[in-house]
Amino acid sequence: MTKASSSTINPEEAAHFGALAADWWDPKGSSAMLHKLNPVRLGYIRDAINQHFHCKSSQFRPLTGKKALDVGCGAGLLCEPLARLGARVTGLDAAPENIAVAKAHAEPQRLDIDYRNEAVEDFGDTGFDLVTSLEVLEHVDDPQAFVDGLAGCLADDGLMIMSTPNRTALSKILLVDLAERTGQIPRGTHHHDQFVTPEELELLLNAAGLKVLDTTGISYGPANGFSLSDNLALNYLMTVVKA
């Protein structure tokens, strides 16, 4: 990929995640925490899809006929479920290693996903019914330009879902100090000063012509793992639409 001047991709962050690509799909590997987090995120996304597109929870493929874009897709942990929900999925990622692994994983399952090693700011396609970007904002150099890029891809009546860690004392203890020290997350994955609070993210979204419909926290407990919560201190999801 030729990195254009508009890109917010941090080369060091891209290299870090690219080095983890080989075992991205291993639920006990370096992305184990994402595998534990994914069902919670998928549940939230499915509920948002049902509400926004007026789908019944019993529908197996509520995104049939719709375009979905996942930005910062990694090796496809979210792209593949979205494809199974019926969407025509495009996945963007800064690390070419991730794109290679994503394509290799999707091919034997006959999932037709358009994976691209490209920055959202340089991406020319628009009119996506669903735009997602989960645990990515905290890794970019210019959050406002990144959010502007996401907004530019969203259809006027589309749905956007974002998630990111909150910048709190709790997130520093659990996601940086504890998780990285104990090997639950590879060292260097998170930089606490780059975390974004819900209030800050809402301002970024508003500046991009978007509005927030819902903000829901993700909490963690040793007994039950990750779950949706009213507590935003650790991590949070947002449902977003055009203003």
The shape is globular
Largest sheet: 8 strands, mixed
Question: What is the CATH class?
Answer: Alpha Beta
Count up the domains: 1
The low-confidence parts are 1-5
Give the topology string: H per helix, E per strand.
HHEHEHEEHEHHEEE
- How are strands sequenced across the largest beta sheet? 3-2-1-4-5-8-6-7
CATH superfamily: Vaccinia Virus protein VP39
Average pLDDT, rounded to a whole number, is 88
The number of strands is 8
Distance between the termini: 33 Å
What's the total helix number?
A: 7
Question: What's the structural blueprint in terms of helices and strands?
Answer:
Layout: H1 11-18, H2 32-52, E1 67-71, H3 79-84, E2 88-92, H4 96-106, E3 114-116, E4 128-134, H5 143-153, E5 154-165, H6 169-181, H7 198-207, E6 210-221, E7 225-229, E8 235-242
Parallel strand pairs: 1-2, 1-4, 2-3, 4-5
Antiparallel strand pairs: 5-8, 6-7, 6-8
Any overview of this molecule?
The protein has a single domain (11-242), classed as Rossmann fold (3-Layer(aba) Sandwich). The protein is an alpha/beta fold. Strand 6 (210-221) and strand 7 (225-229) form a beta hairpin. It starts with 10 loop residues before the first helix and ends with a strand. The model is unreliable at 1-5 (pLDDT under 50). The protein has helices at 11-18, 32-52, 79-84, 96-106, 143-153, 169-181, 198-207, and strands at 67-71, 88-92, 114-116, 128-134, 154-165, 210-221, 225-229, 235-242. The radius of gyration is 17 Å and the shape is globular. The longest helix is centred in the N-terminal third of the chain and has 21 residues, at 32-52. It contains 7 helices and 8 strands. An 8-stranded mixed β-sheet has the order 3-2-1-4-5-8-6-7. Helix content is 33%, strand content 23%.
